[in-house]
Each structure stands twice: as C-alpha cells, then as structure tokens.
Write a structure and sequence with these properties.
globular; Rossmann fold; AB_hydrolase_fold; signal; disordered N terminus; 9-stranded mixed beta sheet; 401 residues; AB_hydrolase_Est10; two-stranded antiparallel ribbon; alpha/beta; 2 domains; carboxylic ester hydrolase activity
C-alpha cells in the first residue's frame, strides 16, 4: 500500500479568483505495485563531479510518460523530505506515479547515498543538481523528453525557477511556497515569525493555535454572560480584546524582526565564523534565558555555513524575468515560514510570462499539510498528511503540460 493511500484527506482550496472545495475528494485504496514500479538510481552532476542517488517511480503501462524531478526545501533533506515521520516528497512521488507521471526524487548532497556536502552547497549549486536530474530523465526510454518538469518545495521551488531561466530548461515548473524576497529578508521574516510562537505551542500548526485561541475567547464570553453581561457589553469586550491582541502582536513582531535583522547583518559583515557564532549564541541566550548554551551554539553554527552565507544575498528577482516555460505557483495561507505575500513578488517577477498560474490554499501550511481537522488518528495521536486537494491540483495541471 503506498504512503499516499494511507493519507487520503481533504482540504479547502482557494484559487485566484477564490474557489473553495465543497467536499473531500476520496479515492479507493489501490496497491502501488499494480500502478507503478520503483527503482533505485544514481546519476552524475558532471559539473561538480559528484554522484547523486534517488528513487525513480515509473507508471505501469505503455509510455512514454510525462516526468518530474522533485526538489527539496532548504536544509538537510533526504529523497522523501522526511521530518518527524511526515514524508511529503514520497507521498507526492507515489501519487503522481499512480496518476501516470514518472517521478525522480533524490537525496540532497551529503545525505543518504548522495555525495557532496549539503552545508557548503549554494542555491546555484543545487540548480546544477536539478539540471543533472533533468538530464538523467532525458536518458530514460519511459520518459517523454518534451514533457519533463520540476516540482520544488520552498528553496527547491526557487531552484526549479532558476533552472528554468538557464539553457536547456525544464518544460514546466511547479513552485510550492517559493520565496520572492532576497534571502536575508525571507530568513529574517521567517525567523522572527517562528520566534513569536510560545514554546508550549511550537508543536501546533497555525490553524490549531487559532482554534485554541477561539475556544479560549468563547469561554471568556461564556463567563461574561454568566456574570450578567449583555450583548453590547460582550461585543465591546470582544472588539477591545481583538484590537489589543493585534496591537501587541504587531509590536512583538516588529521587535523580533529588528533583532533577527541585526543578527543577519552580523553574519553578513563578519567573515570570522567562530566570532560570529559566539556573538549570535550570546544574543539568543539574552533573548531566551531558557535556551541551553549547546542549543544556541548549534543554531549559530548553522547560520554561518557557506550555504547560509550565500543565501543571504540570493535574489530571486534577478532571474524570474528569464523564465519562459509554464509555471504553477502554489502557497498555503497558513504558511509561517514563507509568507503568502511572496506570491505577489513572484508574480511581479514573472509578469512577462503569460503562462503563470497561481493557487492559494486555505488552511494549508508550509509543509502542504491538510488542515488538522482532517488528520487521521494513529495510536490516539493526530498524524499530519499531505493535502489531497493540493495533490489533485498538481496532477491536473501537470497532466495538461
């Protein structure tokens, strides 16, 4: 049974203009062995002279088939994009191959069976890996060589778009929560937003935290009614509470953003990694007295890797104008890592491209998980699953290319 079939779910879909799904799509369970085959493969990045390893899933039946390369988000990722038991790239690969698409997903440099060093690989280096993957698919007899695209998540979306701006581009690009900002701006906003989440709530998605806040407010209103408050008093109290929360949140975010920008500038301006790490660890522990020194040092070390330093100056706008192939931009509106406002920036950069489609998904986060209300319970614990509405939207768009 494929991982996707164990994760059937629903989700609410917003497009531009807005369209909402009125029901949860379902599909019968089908053993993946009857729909596609899986093969361990290796291919070579000839420019950097390293070998990358991955999994190729090929639909059963007569080809040639359309094909895609999956590109992971920033950080150290294996071919499945696995984090805490959630493997979005595996789910996406299995689903698309069930639907008649050849899919290649591969381990990042230095991860699993792939050679190289992920921490020293810049976004431009990752583009060379993506190009090598596309070139490999062109050698496969099962693949329609005129219908090879890339699907990238987060930084992988930017990698796919940048590859499309080069010679021998993919036939199409699907960018899942790609950034339209200069790297340091995106990282500052991301880190400031995550800093705002209280420690006890870090295990919850934005949607879940909003539900908890709503229940707390409803309980407060119930208490006021029990104390004799009338409708006008309740409405006034609610408006005042919401205004106060918004004002406090804006002030805290501005403070956190200023702090993150200061730390990023320290990294940019000082080439001495050891000194920068000591400064950052000190600043983080001053901001959070409960942060252990070892943890602060580990975070600081990640912020001085060659990749991090290069990403601070990465500017997507410099190449978007050269992207000529069809592009699908997708964004979850509950994304706390790449703000949904990035869509407007990407659209601006791609304005000369008349084949851009934009889709926004209500209740979907950066990992493209379905809203928590649709998560299945496993051992009495809700397990995150990839939004089926997103999956079917990708399938429908890719099959038309």
């Amino acid at each position: 049974m494929s991982l996707f079939r164990l994760a059937l779910l629903g989700g609410w879909l917003l497009l531009a203009p807005v369209v909402q799904a009125s029901s949860i799509p379902q599909a019968p369970p089908v053993a993946h062995s009857s729909l596609y085959s899986a093969e361990e493969v290796t291919f070579t990045n000839g420019v950097d002279k390293l070998q990358l390893a991955g999994t190729l899933t090929v639909p059963k039946g007569a080809g040639p088939f359309p094909a895609v390369v999956l590109l992971s988000d920033m950080g150290t990722q294996n071919r499945d994009g696995a984090v805490n038991g959630y493997a979005p790239l595996q789910v996406l690969a299995e689903y698309l191959s069930e639907q008649g698409v050849v899919v290649l997903r591969f381990d990042d440099r230095g991860v699993g069976k792939s050679e190289g060093d992920n921490n020293s690989a810049s976004t431009l280096d990752r583009v060379k890996d993506a190009q090598a993957a596309v070139a490999y698919l062109r050698t496969r007899p099962e693949v329609n060589t005129s219908r090879i695209g890339v699907i990238g998540h987060g930084e992988g979306g930017n990698v796919g778009l940048l590859a499309a701006a080069q010679a021998l581009p993919p036939a199409f690009v699907v960018a899942l929560a790609a950034s339209g900002q200069v790297g340091r701006e995106m990282l500052a906003n991301k880190q400031a937003t995550l800093r705002m989440i209280p420690a006890p709530d870090t295990m919850y998605t934005l949607g879940r935290r909003q539900q908890m806040a709503q229940k707390a407010m409803e309980q407060q209103m119930a208490n006021m009614r029990a104390s004799g408050a009338n409708a006008m008093q309740l409405e006034k109290a609610l408006n005042q509470h919401q205004l106060q929360q918004k004002t406090e949140a804006q002030a805290k975010l501005a403070k956190a953003l200023s702090r993150e920008q200061s730390m990023l500038e320290i990294v940019r301006q000082n080439p001495d990694n050891l000194q920068v790490q000591a400064i950052l660890a000190n600043m983080m522990r001053q901001d959070d007295a409960l942060l252990e020194l070892s943890r602060a040092r580990a975070i600081a070390a990640r912020r001085t890797t060659p990749w991090y330093r290069s990403y601070l100056n990465f500017d997507p706008q410099q190449y978007l104008g050269n992207v000529k192939c069809p592009v699908l931009l997708m964004q979850g509106l509950d994304d706390e890592e790449v703000a949904p406002t990035n869509l407007a920036l990407l659209e601006k950069g791609l304005k000369a491209n008349r084949t851009v489609t934009v889709q926004r998904f209500e209740g979907v986060n950066h990992s493209f998980q379905a809203p928590e209300s649709y998560w299945p319970m496993v051992d009495n614990v809700p397990k995150p699953i990839f939004s089926y509405v997103v999956l079917t939207s990708i399938r429908d768009w890719v099959q038309k290319k």
